[in-house]
Amino acid sequence: MRHRRAEERREMDGSAAATAARRRRRATATSATNSFIKFIAISLFVFLVLFSFFFLFFCKIVHQGNVGLVKSAGAFSGIVEPGIHFIIPVFRSIIELQVTLKTNALENIVCGSSSGVLVNFKRIEIVSMLDPKLVLQTVKNYTVNYDKLWITDKLRHEMNQICSRYSIRQLYIDIFPDLDEMLLESMKNSSANAPGIIIIAIRLTKPQIPKQITENYEKMEIEKTKLLISTETQKVIQQEAQIERVKAVFESQTESDVSKIRMNQLLMEQEFKRKISIIEDEIHLSHQAAIADADLYTKMKEAESGLTQYTQNYIKYELVRSISPLPKSYFGKSLLRMFTDLTYQLLGKDFIFNTTSQTSTMLN
User: Fold this and answer.
1) Measured at the alpha carbon of residue 264, what is the angle toward residues 258 and 265, in degrees to the nearest 5?
2) Alpha-carbon torsion 346, 349, 354, 357, what sign?
3) Residue 19: its H or E element
4) What is each CA distance from 126 to 152, 206, 209, 359, in whole angstroms?
5) In whole angstroms, how far apart are CA 43 and each of 74, 145, 303, 340?
6) What is the DSSP code (8-state) at residue 116?
7) pTM for this structure?
8) pLDDT of 191-229, one tens digit each?
9) DSSP-based three-state secondary structure for 357
């Protein structure tokens, strides 16, 4: 029993020692892993710091829309395109310049008119552009602050020049719509010595003038507006009268044209009727002439027939035949001889002979 208990104690002591050894090994491995992770983190941090330092001092980013001016030992030696470029600090640097459209704004530009009254332009904006091909030449001649020399200061000078040539009324009313174009043209002419600078447009606000003059101009504008309204009203009345006149002329012209058309139509109808009447008359005359010709022909034929029919004997015969039905009274000694003598006188000897022969033939 004692021996067995001793063995169990030894086994328990051995297992406890093994467990403790395993714990020590695990602790050692965890410590080594933590140390490695710390080393990696420290190394990464040092790398990032060094990379940032290198990127900050040895790299230059040129953004899109700009060009980089390379400056070596205090002199501009060239230009670089947008992107990342490596430089050597102290000996070499890159300066960015914008080559796209940009706007320079000037505020409270005060200039004097030809009459001596001060005019204040609250804001003037000038849109310009730097030619990418002439960047190096422009910067060499006028430094990187070229816009102050040829845009800002020049604009003030040109504005004073223009104001001194015109009165306050002209600046405030008459030429103000064209003032930006005049200023733009003047700026372009004056910047001919700097061909790399391109002036695109100029915008300016309405000038501010003394309040009393402004009130006078406002009163003048009110009166001008009244006059304009009156003039326009008169023009409208004149136009309406003109329209009425034109309308009346048009209506009269239309009526005249309609009358002419109707008259022409009536004339054409009468002319047509006249022609029809002439044709009918010609037809009637032709018909009457044909009837007359026919009658003449008939009479001529009848006359020709009469010449052959109405002989002397036929006339005498008809005479006797026409008087024979009439009642007659005869007086004398010999009635036969009297009848014979009368017949002989009327009809002739040949008729009596022919009649006697025909009578004898009939009797036989």
Assistant:
1) 90
2) positive
3) helix 2-58
4) 9, 15, 22, 160
5) 38, 44, 166, 198
6) S
7) 0.48
8) 778 888 899 999 998 888 888 887 777 787 788 888 888
9) helix
